Amino acid sequence: MSGKVVTLTSGKGGVGKTTATANIAVALAAAGAKVVCIDGDIGLRNLDVVMGLENRIVYDLVDVVEGRARLRQAMIKDKRLPDLSLIPAAQTRDKAAVSPSDMIKVCNDLRPDFDWILIDSPAGIERGFRNAIAPADQVIIVTNPEVAAVRDADRVIGLIEAEEKGPGQLILNRVKIEMVKRGDMLSTEDVLDILAIPLIGIIPEDEGILVATNRGAPAAMDDKSRAGEAFRHIARRLRGEEVPFMALEDNKNFLQKLAERFKMGSGGS
Amino acid sequence: MSNFFDRLFGRTPPPSARTAKERLQLVLIHDRTDLSPAILETLKDEIIAVISRHVDIDQEGVEINLTQNQRENRLVANIPLLEAPAGGRKRRK
Predict the structure, then answer these.
(1) Interface residues of chain B, partner chain A, Cβ below 8 Å
(2) Are A41 and A22 contacting, i.e. CB atoms less than 8 angstroms apart?
(3) Which CATH number belongs to the domain containing residue A97 in this structure?
(4) How far is it, in rounded angstroms, from Cα A20 to Cα A173?
(5) Does residue A161 sit at the B interface (CB-CB below 8 Å)?
(6) What is the pTM of this model?
(7) How far is the alpha carbon of B52 from chain A, nearest alpha carbon, in Å?
(8) Residues A11 and A144 sit within 8 Å (Cβ to Cβ)
(9) Of A172, A109, A138, A162, which is closest to residue A240 (Cα–Cα)?
(10) Domain, as residue range, for A51
(11) For chain A, what percent of residues have pLDDT higher than 70?
(12) How many domains does chain A have?
């Protein structure tokens, strides 16, 4: 087994990197892959609470890098999904405690035992971002249909290309379809025109995400969650499956939509 | 009702998403190339100076623009030449 390292990043904070990391990890693990997440946001750790694993932290990434703990000791297994683990960030240190080469080493140590290594990058384009993309085989850029988020995404895409990790794939998060319909929110097509990178998923705005985070049980665990379903689709696309985008997700013509309704009705995707 | 008349007389502002897209496209051209409008203006003056040393150009008609195609950016200069009078020396301004 040689695991693939996927880094989720965005430039701007608050667009849903951590939520996306947790949900994609859950979806991959639920489908039987061995998954480990690394929280790259040293000093502002959050992936642990979003995943609901905050009470079980003993050691963290900095303890591993500085030799106080072995990698296995810092890894928290999710009891709900035995194939899912988390390596938490340190909360009382800063980003300078880890270097890009430390991250490459940690990931190389993890590769033999996992299918997927997901890294949740901190916001910004400084040290923490550099650490998070250094070991990446693949980079996912998370953005919202909103000018500041798209501008920052563009900047990050440029930096990723400069590091020869590009072009990356895009998750468009928190799309409010009603606003798009009345012309008050950038559509998927608008954002793709501007950023010009491949799309890997569109996540609809969904209050259930906050409820899931309140409980520490990512929405992808819930079969009925619409956003959770969109994250499960992303996991399948990562695994190489061709999954059509959900009806809200693009401007298919009426007949295509109708055809999909029928397929859905008869137990399809 | 005012909405109806606004529409009738074309007073409705464009949908805000369109404005967002246009603003983003403009700002990103400069972000991506690190060329501000001021630098572009300087560039234009210098190009005019260099080319004018060798050939007469219509200085008023010179246009320097940044264009983008996917993630590729291009500096496009449009420099109209002044016609030389038939059989003779080039016209000087």
Answers:
(1) 15-18, 20-21, 23-25, 27-28, 31-32, 70-71
(2) no
(3) 3.40.50.300
(4) 9
(5) yes
(6) 0.83
(7) 36
(8) no
(9) A138
(10) 4-265
(11) 91
(12) 1
